[in-house]
Amino acid sequence: MKKDLLTFADWSKAELLSLLKLAQQTKQNPADYRKALDGKAVAALFEKPSLRTRVSFDIGINKLGGHMVYLDSQAGKLAGREDARDMGANLACWADAIVARVYSHNTLVQMAETAKVPVINALCDLYHPCQALADFLTVQEVLGDVSQCRLAYIGDGNNVSNSLLLMGAILGADIRVITPKGHEVKGQILDQAHSLAQQSGAKIVASTDLDAARGCQFLYTDTWLSMGDTTPLAEIKDKFQPFQLNRQLMDKCGADYAMHCQPAHRELEITSELIDGECSLLLQQAENRMHAQNAILISLLTAH
Ligand code: CP
Ligand code: NVA
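That is the input. Now the predicted structure with phosphoric acid mono(formamide)ester docked in place:
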């Protein structure tokens, strides 16, 4: 039976911890994994732009001895030229896995339905699971134990906040999401996070008050306008400005580390002082994208 990675919400704590361990091993001992994907091919479909995801999958797959074929949107939504179900079924005739960055989560669900090979979510409107795994790998490197993590995500309730919430809830972490009014995380995601937290002992908080971030070691932010959101920046800037990640907010919360999935918008959601400062984990997060994804690929494509 093939396994997909659409959200991680249906993965157990033990499965996530073993993925984190594998990611750490591939990072520390790359030579041991040089042939892990020998003879395997991955089709990577991108409806939206990407720097980190595209390059880290391509180079990561290469380092494991596999091959990646990149397909962009070919001047339109992928699911516009042909049905996502047909696309998934066809790609699975040649590829051993499909990595896809799409506008609508439903496109991934449809592809996964018909593709006989694993489908991996490389970002959609609701989730960014590969990012969350890289982020918790980074947290693990800093703290040693992800369940000890107190992380506040500050900004727009979006795909990145959702995946951090769900993964933190499974891993038993303390995750707080602080958003301006009107930009909260969807109720359905929060309900799911609360129900996962009941099993793991995680603490989940959603608030519009920045005081909720006090005591967190990690402050995390993301763009105020996600790809595909055509709202003019001028319309939301004043509302989001107090939520900017800056030195003052770090000090107020007693936080040690600043995180951002990137692309970052300097002096908007985060200051250059933090991006380039000692407290920045941004490049460690970016580097860990490749190791996290390599662990996902090895786990889904091989009997490792
Ligand atoms: N963090 C992230 O997914 O970056 P890209 O959009 O550049 O892939
Ligand atoms: N929330 C952002 C993440 C980019 C990696 C977006 O969807 O554009």
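The chain has a mean pLDDT of 96.
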